[in-house]
Amino acid sequence: MSPEAPIPASTASWLPVILDSAGPFSQPVTTLAWVIFTGGFVILGIVIAALTIALFGSPRLKARLGGEKAIWIGGFAFPVVVLTILLIWGLWLTSHLSAQRITGDEMRVRVIGEMWWWRVHYLDENGRETFRDANELHIPVGQPVLLDLQAADVIHSFWVPRLAGKMDMIPGRTNRLLIQADAPGVYHGQCAEYCGGPHALMGFVVVAHAPEDFARWQAARAPAPAAQGSAARGADLFMSSGCAACHTIRGSPADGLAGPDLTHVGSRRSLGAGILPNNKGTLAGWIADSQALKPGNRMPAYHQFDGEELRALADYLASRQ
Question: pTM for this structure?
Fold first, then answer.
């Protein structure tokens, strides 16, 4: 697969996304979920059978169902035994998901939940930042990735159903989560803890590359070259209109920290934290009136730009590959 080749959207089958595991750190959660669902259906069947006997059964069956022995077995012994077994087995099944299983050899990424988007900081083996991105996480296939999860404002929750369970992101604390993808693909995630405002529109994607493609992607994270043509006018507008006060574009004077890093925004698959496809049209629409697309987000509308200026800005941002 070349760097330009499209990555498969997913390898999902007929299963719902939350039950279609795609890595070793989601498989135990999926297995546990299937056992609980199956057990729930079995117990529901038992309850319905008991209710049917209670309503329509013979006097002899009703007497046996309401006897002291049946109550001790069904109301006490059965739930105690079943829940104890489920607890012990569930802890054993998910034991390797804990931070104690971290070896120190994993690729590391810091993800910070914001209202209502995601900062992504790629780290080296010593925990030092190498470069930044936003709303999109790239990982190599077949390798565990250790995520340092933090929150900048309120509690968020990081959840990529096909790659791992949920993990809360709490202000002032770093929680750790291991993820791994077994096949190339684009795996969708979502903030799973209500965080106010447009919480439901706080999504992201995890893009899993074959190792050689990931190495090429990583090598291309250098500052983007200077803008040319109409994009050059867009660069001037970006620097003079206040955009640079909130956003960083490495290799340019823009060094704002309030909003997402836009150094490589043109290469991302989506805008607005996963709510829009990324193209020049949606870029222009987002700049003109992001509040109409994602009400409550922290970027103001820029009604002062005319159509030609919006196209120039979109050309500039789309060229940031």
Answer: 0.85
